[in-house]
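Data deposition worksheet. Section B asks for the primary sequence of the deposited chain exactly as it was used as input, without tags or linkers unless they were present during the calculation. Section C holds the resulting structure in token form. Section D is free text for depositor observations; keep each observation to a single sentence. Incomplete worksheets are returned to the depositor.
Section A, Depositor: J.P.
Section B:
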Amino acid sequence: MKKPICYVSQNFFIQIFSISKLHSGTGPKIVSSYNTRKQSMLSNYLEFIQNKLITFPNNEHKDIKDRLLKNLPVHSIRVDKEYNKYRPGQIYKTQFGIPIKITKVNKLTNINQYIFFKHLTTAQKNYLKRFNKIDHIIMTKN
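Section C:
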């Protein structure tokens, strides 16, 4: 068995695997438990950890990594289940291992309000026009 990196108590611990496993849904798992209350607390903690991961489309990874490594801001649009999820000041992990900090969240009611609207593809514009609750997130390397 791998050595756990997070002990909750003497008889209760979890083992956290890599972020990629966290993202794929096979990540943190309960290794041992003797108490349902502590099991519930751990489940809440694991949900919190998984929610502290921000993901990006694979085709954008290189550009986002490059901008973060140059300490430049990154802009992202979030809709549907990710709307209203991110808050300024919060720190998130990325799939590629660079922690980011949310610096600003702009609430949009129409994708035409997005400052980089003209840089979106036609397919992106058509998809995003379906939503009237849009978060424009600005983030930097933490």
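Section D:
Residues 6-51 form one domain.
The beta strands are 6-9, 12-15, 29-32, 53-54, 74-78, 91-94, 100-108, 134-141.
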